[in-house]
Specification:
Blueprint lengths: L1 H15 L12 E15 L11 E14 L5 E9 L7 E10 L2 E8 L2 H5 L34 E7 L6 E8 L17 E11 L3 E12 L2 E12 L2 E10 L1 H8 L7 E12 L2 E12 L2 E15 L2 E13 L4 E13 L1
Antiparallel strand pairs: 1-2, 1-16, 2-3, 3-4, 4-5, 5-6, 6-7, 7-8, 8-9, 9-10, 10-11, 11-12, 12-13, 13-14, 14-15, 15-16
């Protein structure tokens, strides 16, 4: 892993060598999104006999900016501020360098595996794969790309060659902090991804293969999306080893986890609709879910989205139910 860090540093150092200071100072632009949802769920087994809030929201404000040096290399920064949180106010913050050698990112960010993973198409606010269904009902989250969360790491993405692009990320520990405490039980986290994107006469193709190593455990995944006309059909599969589950979930007798999703979407003018199915199995625990999603663009940066979902979970306490969610997403 030291070789990865040295190579990344060498690329950046060579890129900046001999540069004049004629480029303009970086100016940050403001962007982000706001989501406001209303909905309900009916289920057999609620948490502690209560129910989830009928309203959910998610807001982030982005500060992004870059400058181009005299040799054409771009360098910039991204800071994402959470609009509503009880923990860390900063979601992601990282520096990036773009050039003919590819792209280097350093800071608190998603891994290459997470960023490059392809999953089944879905347009509603409640997805079956790493979505928000667990915000509305007492159901396990299905995830075919269970990558480590945002953490301080260095990531390299290769240039696009014939539609293919590769990426690799390295974090020196899985619980990184800025204080002076040593990571007594921190583990190296290595994430890799390979993607392909191509447009042909009458159809498009997106492929991905990704994986991650943490604490001597691994997960692997792959996905595909095919677009033809107004339709997109696709799906994904993920296998997570028990050692990876133990490292990330602290579960006492964790088993391997297998998950997959499959779906189809149809888009026409300002409207889009999707139907997606997801399934996950860990030992004797099984969960499956279906989401019917709808999205309609009301104007520039304004979209009305809705979901009707159903789930069934066989766990220590079995649970099944359904729900409806609708609301507005603003992009700015």
């Amino acid at each position: 892993m030291k070789k990865i860090l040295f190579a990344s540093s060498a690329i950046v150092a060579v890129a900046f060598a001999g540069q004049a200071s004629a480029s303009e100072k970086i100016k940050l632009a403001v962007g982000g999104y706001m989501e406001q949802w209303a909905g309900f769920a009916d289920e057999d087994n609620t948490v502690s006999g209560g129910r989830y809030n009928a309203f959910q929201s998610d807001t982030e404000v982005y500060f992004r900016g870059s400058t181009t040096l005299d040799n054409g290399i771009e360098i910039g920064a991204v800071i994402e501020l959470e609009g509503e949180t009880s923990t860390d106010q900063i979601d992601e913050q990282y520096m990036f360098v773009n050039g003919g050698f590819g792209r280097v990112e350093m800071g608190k960010n998603d891994s290459a595996a997470d960023a490059m993973g392809v999953t089944a198409p879905a347009v509603g606010p409640v997805g079956v794969n790493d979505g928000d269904m667990s915000n509305w009902a007492n159901v396990e989250l299905i995830d075919t790309v269970p990558s480590s969360s945002d953490q301080k790491r260095v990531t390299y993405y290769s240039p696009v060659l014939g539609g293919f692009r590769a990426g690799i990320s390295y974090a020196d520990q899985d619980t990184s902090t800025n204080d002076n405490e040593k990571a007594n039980n921190g583990e190296n986290v290595v994430s890799v991804g390979l993607e392909y994107k191509g447009d042909f006469d009458g159809f498009s193709l997106g492929l991905s293969a990704e994986g991650e190593n943490n604490n001597e455990g691994n997960w692997y995944g792959a996905g595909v999306n095919v677009g033809f006309g107004n339709f997109t059909v696709g799906g994904s599969y993920g296998l997570t080893e028990d050692d990876y589950n133990l490292a990330n979930n602290a579960a006492p007798n964790a088993d391997d986890t297998e998950a997959f999703d499959i779906g189809v979407s149809y888009a026409m003018d300002a409207a889009a609709v999707s139907l997606t199915y997801g399934y996950e199995e860990t030992g004797d625990n099984e969960v499956q879910a279906v989401d019917l999603g709808f999205a309609y663009t009301l104007g520039a940066g304004v979209a009305w989205k809705s979901s009707v979902f159903w789930f069934d979970e066989e766990d220590t306490v079995d649970n099944d139910g359904y729900g409806v969610v609708t609301g507005i997403r603003l992009d700015f």
